[in-house]
Amino acid sequence: MSKLSFHLLEPLRFPLINRFYKAYYPAGKAKKDETIWVGESNQGIQCCVRFKYIEDYQLLTGMLVHPEQRGQGIGQHLLQAVQDQLTQQPCYCFAFAYLEAFYQAAGFVTLSDDALPAPLQSRIERYRAGGKSLIPMRYSPNLTDN
């Protein structure tokens, strides 16, 4: 793997991120009102993560690592690169069960549904009604062993 550069996606390059999603995670689709971070090499975008703003909170969503790059720690490097973003506003994510430990290693803690702010409770309920099995988590690095 070549060296990655982590940075905010420039607005002019927005179509590239949706092409990346379409190729490797068709359910993901970036929206222009989101903050999008990418990791790029000389071979193009290798990973990305989006932040949606919901009232006074942000929701980490759509994290994707190129399938050929998985298992190499790129996702953790991306989350380290977005530390300033994670602390700008309270940050939550809805993790698939198999990714719970991954997010815990990055400073997220698992929550009960009733610990979510109201606007996020209704959102996770909608996602679950659509058949997704998700675990609510909040970025709280001071509550982890990291």
TrEMBL record:
Classify the source by domain of life.
Bacteria
SUPFAM superfamilies xrefs: Acyl-CoA N-acyltransferases (Nat)
Q: Which GO terms describe its molecular function?
A: acyltransferase activity, transferring groups other than amino-acyl groups
Keyword Membrane listed? The answer is: no
Q: Which InterPro entries match?
A: Acyl_CoA_acyltransferase, GNAT_dom
Q: N-acetyltransferase domain: from which residue to which, for each copy?
A: 1-142
Name of this protein: Acyltransferase
